[in-house]
Amino acid sequence: MLLVLCVDLDDDLGRKTGFSTPVIGRDPVEEAAVALATADPEDSDVNVIFQGLHVYDDLSDRGESVEVAVVTGNDQGDVNANREVGDEVDTVLASLSTAEDVTALVITDGAQDESVIPIIRSRVPIDGVRRVVVRQAQNLESMYYTIKQVLDDPETRGTVLIPLGILLLIYPLALIGSALEWPGFVLGTTSALLGLYLISRGLGLGDRLDSAVERARRSLYAGRTTLLAYVVAAALVVLGAVSGMNELETVGESTPGDVAVPAAVAAFAYGSIQWIAAAGVTTSLGQITDEYIAGTLEWRYLNAPFYVLSIAIVLQAVSAFFLDLVDTTYLATALTAGTLLGIVSTLTFAVAESRFSDANESGETPDAKST
């Protein structure tokens, strides 16, 4: 008797259909094949089982003594799966009621399932091994549908199509640039776009930008004042930069020759520091407001505006001193005032936090005891 043995090493049949294995006999095997095809039409083990049925019908029509069965392993690895297949082959052989010598024709879908052949050979002689390969997978149609499926993925489209599109645009844009007598500008712009895209993909800037936009959207709908504070602070920083450049031009006009680097830095800082300090105070107040609304405000958070003012006072005095606008007395006074402002604010809010926390704890103790 010839035993047509369909091998499913990773037990797709059992996991996807719930069939108990081994499956023995023509009708049960056909039922299992239909169930697996219904559960997962793309599973290659479907073709293995139907191929086993085809071989069984062909040999049966010729009058040969034949039986068909499906044996499975598991998804725990080659060794455990091979042992499981060996046990199921023993079960199949024990169920065959025949006095004839039994040989096997093993049907698989690839080299991985064929690793179990030595296990089967140790139990029953093997007349042959047939690997099922779907013909469609070898032609151009399969390639077309594979490419179509890959390009349907948004991540793949963004990774492959955008750089390819930019590269394909280089030649026509170069022709347009030559016609407009701007070949260098067009090629440089195209190259810059491609480089920026690749850098953004490599650094994951797209995901970060999406996250930032989502955070801004949530802050907008949640009524967070931090978002408004950041917008105002950005405008103040721009104004500070403009004011700093104006101060730098003023110093350059009043100074013969080139302006030294320290003097240029001092001039820019002197002209912009008040605007940048206002931006820092604005953002810190916005953050403090949101923390208070959320009920998570701590006393030490109130130090932020005073620290900003302290730093601004120090930088303004130092830059003015470099520009010979103030004397050493003013510089010493400003440095002392900035330092004292930071220290006093730190001590004040630290003491306030300590006393209020102690008061809250003492106020909660009677309630806890009464409870």
UniProtKB/TrEMBL annotation:
The keyword Transmembrane applies. The chain crosses the membrane at residues 158-176, 182-200, 221-243, 263-285, 306-323, 329-352. Keywords: Membrane, Transmembrane, Transmembrane helix. The keyword Membrane applies. This is DUF373 family protein. It comes from Natrarchaeobius chitinivorans.
